[in-house]
Fold these 4 entries.
Entry 1:
Amino acid sequence: MIDKNRRGLVLAAGGALAAGAMGDMAWAAPPDRKLGYAIVGLGSYGLGIIIPQFANCRNSRLVALVSGDPAKAKRVAQEYGVPEKNIYNYQNYDDIRNNPDIDVVYVCLPVSMHAEYTIRAAKAGKHVLCEKPMAVSSAECESMIAACRQAGKKLMIGYRCHFEPYNLEAVRRARAGEIGKLRYFRSEHGFTFRDPNAWRLKKALAGGGSMMDIGIYALNAARYMTGEEPIAVYAQETTDRKDPRFREVEDMIGFQLEFPSGVIGSCMSMYSANQNHILLMGDKGRIDMEPATAYHGNRMWVGNGRENEITPPPGPGATQWAGQLDHMSQCVLQNREPIVAGEEGLRDLRIIEAIYRSAREQKRVVLKT
């Protein structure tokens, strides 16, 4: 069950996401104190997105690499100044316990590997930042949380949008009542997946299709934008099984979320069309974001149309990724819980399981609180 006290604090009036992400400015560690990170997985995200972001961090630095490709690892280590002794593979991974340079492990692996490498990191005495979705099942999420708790280590999930300026500003304005009483939320997230051999299209590695990838942005946004937990879901899947991309996983899932206040959330996840959109409809206006959760180029309008475009104030970091990395470091240094701790990932997985069940059984599913 999600920690209601923690979530209530994060979603306090006027703050929401900003209460957590912006709030760490008040207790930020000294700028010269940097924790060491080991990046596990040198794929497109770990290598192409996360590693370059350490240059933008105040409290985080790259100190180690974990990869199954020794040549690539050596090349990356040389480029980013990582000592060769701090290169690990998946066989000697547990030896990180003997390396005091490593404070935090960032797991950037296929979803099916998240639980194993999070649990092994915790047992090795390291804090863990794990990419989303947290795991392939809620049971795995629970095991990850238990392992980190038993080891006395922090566990944070890589929900970067909780540190992204446009999302923070949208939440702030919604909480401030700028669009009146929220009545309806909509989010469509998808892209056209072209490579039928990609690991994300293999159920054993990804745990599912678009819902376990781009769809989590729509789901998580529905929760942090409304500030509520859904009480029921109804979902429908549309997949062309003749398409070689979708032999194992789903393409499109549309799902409707019911919230305690009466707000309805209408969401779409897809691997066969490009869309990145969030809309909050209140009784006095709307917040319209498109793209809403992209790496760059997000835009937002507030009012009754698209006449009033908003440029938000800066986020808690130089970039959303730097803000995320430094938030984890500051939580470790100040012994605070991350605003997107393991329980946040667990809650999403429980809802995703209900979405799959609803689509499979073609019925409304009531969510457990």
Entry 2:
Amino acid sequence: MTISRRPLVRLFFGLLLLLPSLAAAENFPAKPIKLIVPFPAGGPNDIIARVIGQRMSELSGQPVLIDNRGGQGGVLGTDAVAKAAPDGYTIAISSAGALAISPSMEKVAYDTLNDLTPVTLVATVPEMLVVAANVPAKDIGELIALAKAQPGKLNFASSGPGSLPHLAGELFKLTAKIDIVHVPYRGAAPAVNDLLGQQVQMTFLDLPVLLPQVKAGALKPIAVGSAERAPTAPDVPTTKEAGFPDLRIENWYGMVAPKDTPKEIVAALHDLATKAMADPAVKDKLAQQGATLVGDEPEHFRSFIADETKKWAKVIRDAGVETAK
């Protein structure tokens, strides 16, 4: 009986090809890691990345270098990762906008699930609905009644067309069946400034951005879009408590690597990131920013991105949001 040696030869050469990636994973990281933040310094994405990156550096013994590459709502920095070498040394912590919304809103140079490798969902941050101090509404029911009494007269601010706050307002319109007008701004700060100046009536924004003005009494909180009340704003009801379970709106930030990054390297990055997130000091720092750390498996994060993409694509379609495709 003659036994073909071809399968054995294939197996042998397959193992030879696998050995370099196994060795690289075993020694990973052997040099500094570049962690791209696709937004300017000082914002929620930047703060989360710096806290996580610092702990990753301490755990690994290698520097984790923050590289802020703002532009196009996070798209430019995320695209830089998609074009990077797939060796695990250039990664990003990017946002819901760049990973799940922008690809449905505009022509971007990457396909999230084909050109990037999900590593882990890092954190979620509730969106808070607030109104200007002169708006005569103290809860979501009163706000909806006010909007229905004045169709097309109330405005909602956002941090830009196609941003999560923009689509949050569109989802609010669809869910509550109200007619309110979108006013886009170039970022959260100018939107908040005009809300304080009572030039617009309401907005959805990341809770940490709004909390100082809420605590100062300058803005009135209406609801948060998380499943449970936010620890930093325990008196503010959730949208579900207010009778709108479908108005679930949270921003989120996830770690991604270039496509074709070896599974062993992805596993090493995942292990390093989740160990950093499990540190009590890291949890406490980011809880003060209104962020809840997650740390799921790569495949779960992949499914999460796919679900979020479908959700917001439907809102874009149903609301008739103009796209740049």
Entry 3:
Amino acid sequence: MTDHTAGKVTFVGAGPGAADLLTFRAARAIAGADVVIWAASLVQAEVLGHAREDAEILDSAALSLEDVVAVYERAAREGLKVARIHSGDPALWGGTQEQVDRCDALGLAVEIVPGVSSFSAVAAVAGRELTIPEIAQSVILTRLGGGKTPMPPGEEVREFARHGTTMAVFLSAARSGQLTQELLEGGYPTSTPVLVAHQVTWPEELVVRCTIGTLEETVKQHKLWKHTLFLVGPALSASGTRSHLYHPGHFHGFRRADPAARKALREERTRGAAR
């Protein structure tokens, strides 16, 4: 039975594609929905296995924002529960905020269920940590300018590249030559490692290791132009460093430091600061 007392829209982060990367909360939201709007080209069809048999299923690829808002208006009138399934995490390049604003204007309850972002999935498949002690302690999430949505001033890839840390570049495979140029202009060496990842967690998943110097060649060789993510930075090949978090000389609320190890750790930090 549909609850006709209050409409609600739940924005569901479905992860990078694989249905078994849904959270339990995401699965419950889909199961409880009267209407499911999903991105068929970005999420595997198995996610719909959580939907009720009588749920209305709509493919967002065929819908404009106005079409989606019309569904939300119906949900407000009839007290329907809508699950709006987004790929990855709704906080990143999902067109989520404009929908939330319209739901608020309609008086609809809104919930956002976070999902696994594709940059996390690529790092997991590659077996890499993106924040390596003494190498990179930041991750920049961005995309190349020149696409459908203009980039704000100062957010060019070349400007972010000046930090020399780990960078995840979305929505940029169709302009791999421009991407290579901006990464180099920002100061990354030609030999900087790159992971080129296409449809990670899908059956046709492809992850290729290259360098900035061979990035454009790699993309063109594999004929990639969409559904592709780049991870860039020295952390992708770094080893030999150690986090202080699990060092015997480090203490926190649940563990005391070993005195000798604590002294050695302090001396190590002093030497590092002097360099």
Entry 4:
Amino acid sequence: MTESIDEAEIIDGNAVASDVREAVAGHVETLDAAGVTPGLATVLMSDDPASETYVSMKQRDCEEVGIEGIHVEIDADAPADELYDTIDELNRREDVHGILVQLPVPDHVDKRSVLRQINPEKDVDGFHPENVGRLVAGDARFKPCTPHGVQKLLDAYDVETEGADAVVVGRSDIVGKPMANLLIQKSPVGNATTTVCHSRTEDLEGKLADADLVIAAAGIPEFVDGSMIKPGATVIDVGINRVDADTEKGYALVGDVDYDSASEVAGAITPVPGGVGPMTRAMLLYNTVKAAGLQHGVDLDLD
């Protein structure tokens, strides 16, 4: 599963995601035996090409593991009520077990209202306030896909989190906050002493220098470099940013970590692309089959 380089062990997200998808396909077979076909509805209210690509990839992922994909497109200029009515309809549909509204939504639509509109039992992103509260309480229904994917990577590569000093760089609702909550909880991939850093943090370098585990999710290209990292630390790069480059496409994808310098210091590191990104998509499938099992009383033995 791993590749060896002179500097650091590469944490291969593609390989771990493949294992997750294989497990999900097995759960789909279990559901099928119980007369249930798991269904994921994606809703797109955007003209952004990147959002269109993300949704297309998620629908393709569903097809590959046997999940029924339902896709709804809404004109970006349509009234907000059209999106809310669509969500209400999907909430009522028995063949839809998970609902994902691709973010961002247009400025005239309130994102928080959208997230609250989704039935929390179908909120496979884990962003509904009820699901956020359950996560914080240590009784998660659905763990948000990216933080859960990071946990799966750490587990797959036997990264010891118990008693470790972890630093999460970034405090977003999607990654930073739930990631910190998962790391501090009493669980096999938890029990870490966790610090959350952000744009107002003083002496970020000092805090990173003591970290056994660094999770970079600041949304700033190559923000963390090798000089900030403790030798032998595990570095998980959640960022994916487009930067101008002399390539055929005119850009390159880089993370929030300067990979070249960090890989010379870290004990293990995720690449960009090929690290956390594939895990986010795989965990969406995981949450969808979990939702189908919960809604139909089929025990899939999932965390």
